[in-house]
Amino acid sequence: MVPGVFTGYFAAAAGGAGVLIGLLFVAISLRPETVFGDNAAPGGRALAGSAFTGLANAFFVALTALIPRINLGVTAVLMALISVYSIIKLHRGLRGRDSQRVAMAFSLAVYLGQLAVAVALIARPRDHIFVYDLAYLLVGSLAAALTRAWALLQGKHTAASLDGGPV
After folding, report:
1. Which of 2, 89, 97, 126 is the most buried (most CB within 10 A)?
2. 65-97, pLDDT tens digit by residue?
């Protein structure tokens, strides 16, 4: 169960993630051919996909936390598993720069941490320390997503494709 003191936090996190998903769509629409076009560099799709994954993860975990008397651990486990799978699938086979490998590793660490905390929350649903941990991990998920979205907006995926490899 999520303590009532978290209502404001999770409402703000869900709202913020929802708005940022919309802004990500706007950023993609500025250069759609570089992300989803036939000649798009795989790095663009990976940047957009990993940004969306982080924002969707934060959105659904935070939104679910607002449902009264729910065990947040179940949703957090599902979203962590989906996020880990998505990040691995998006980045498999990409020859990235060190900064992109670090960003991917950070994302995976956040989602695996979320998975561990969520499993603990399922086992001990009244232990509120796990809700605090999930709240901090959501900040990490949003930070990773914003970093990726900013790189996409800056066109780093197009610059990388010009010098021989995707981001």
Report:
1. 2
2. 999 999 999 999 999 999 999 999 888 766 666
Angle at 156 between CA 153 and CA 159, to 5 degrees: 130
Q: How many domains does the chain have?
A: 1
Q: What is the pTM of this model?
A: 0.86
Name the residue among 131, 107, 108 with its Cα closest to residue 10.
131
Q: How many CB atoms lie within 10 A of CB 96?
A: 18
Tell me whether residue 39 is exposed, middle or buried, using C-beta atoms within 10 angstroms of its C-beta: 0 to 12, 13 to 18, 19 or more: exposed
* 149-44-60 Cα angle (round to 5): 45
The answer to the question of residue 141 being in a domain is yes
* pLDDT tens-digit series, residues 156-167: 666 544 444 444
Domain membership of residue 14 as a residue range? 4-161
Instruction: Please check whether residue 167 lies inside any domain of the structure.
Output: no
Cα 137 to chain centroid, rounded:
10
Is residue 166 situated within a structural domain? no
Task: Kindly report the three-state secondary structure assignment for every residue of 84-140.
Answer: HHHHHHHHCCCCCCHHHHHHHHHHHHHHHHHHHHHHHHHHCCCCCHHHHHHHHHHHH
